[in-house]
Amino acid sequence: MGDYGRPLEFGYFLVPDADDPLLDLARAADRAGLDLVGVQDHPYQRRYVDTWTLLSMIAAVTERVRVFPDVANLPLRPPAVLAKAAASLDALSGGRAELGLGGGGFPEAVEAFGGPRRTPKEAVDALTEAVTVIREVWSGGRNLRFEGEHYRLRGAKAGPVPAHRIELWLGTGGPRGLALTGRAADGWLPSSSWATPDKLPALHARIDEAAVAAGRDPADVRRLYNVNGTITDGTSGGFLRGPASQWADELTDLAVGSGMDSFILWAEGDQETQLRRFAEDVVPAVRAQVAQERGA
């Protein structure tokens, strides 16, 4: 663990609050040159618009940014249909969709919305099956068959195929979920609120061990990070709470010292201001510092 040497990417974590200017913020992220816009997926949250509907609208009003659910709520989104939705959005957007996926973190809320209430073990079992189902559906094959405890394919016909190779990123934190990520996913998508920097080495180690056991290079697994904080004018108020120079130093350390390669801004405060400062003041500085440290 340290620096996996992957190219850096930067994005914006859009909270889908119906009262916010969501499409304006997405367009601002696109214009600012960010690589990604992620939208959290909590269908039971009454203030939020539906994530897939919003992602489709974002893709329609932007030109270059890639979009993804951060992360899709598996218990409320059957994986074969989820795969079809992602492939469709990818085809319609010219290859600008990726898929973040999680086992569903709020069982009571999921159950209230008609979904299955799963134990932590069942959630990882279902996520494991879902990865297989999604890959099968993206293959475009016919007569697809899969028999799992939670999900099944019985002679399914898949299509259309995605416009590009959609990456599947898992928002996992437990040992079995991390092993699944290392074995079968294209990326790992935690948040700094729970996967704090001090915990990253042990979490990476689980992913890397499973990747090697599956015959993969650990560097093939993208490491994305939803970074929660505020860019301020004042002195430091702690991790990711301070001026742009502090953010640049901390994200550089996370890239070259803690193995993360893609940073999704989950900002507190005025969103337009935070987004602009991140794109203009933080991102170029991180790119320059990481390039310098890697060069040295």
TrEMBL record:
Domain of life: Bacteria
A GO term for molecular function: alkanesulfonate monooxygenase activity
Domain Luciferase-like: 21-227
Keyword Thylakoid applies: no
GO process terms (BP): alkanesulfonate catabolic process
Annotated keywords: Flavoprotein, FMN, Monooxygenase, Oxidoreductase
InterPro entries: Luciferase-like_dom, Luciferase-like_sf, SsuD_RutA_monooxygenase
UniProt xrefs under Pfam families: Bac_luciferase
Signal peptide feature range: none
Record protein name field: LLM class flavin-dependent oxidoreductase
Species of the source: Actinomadura chibensis
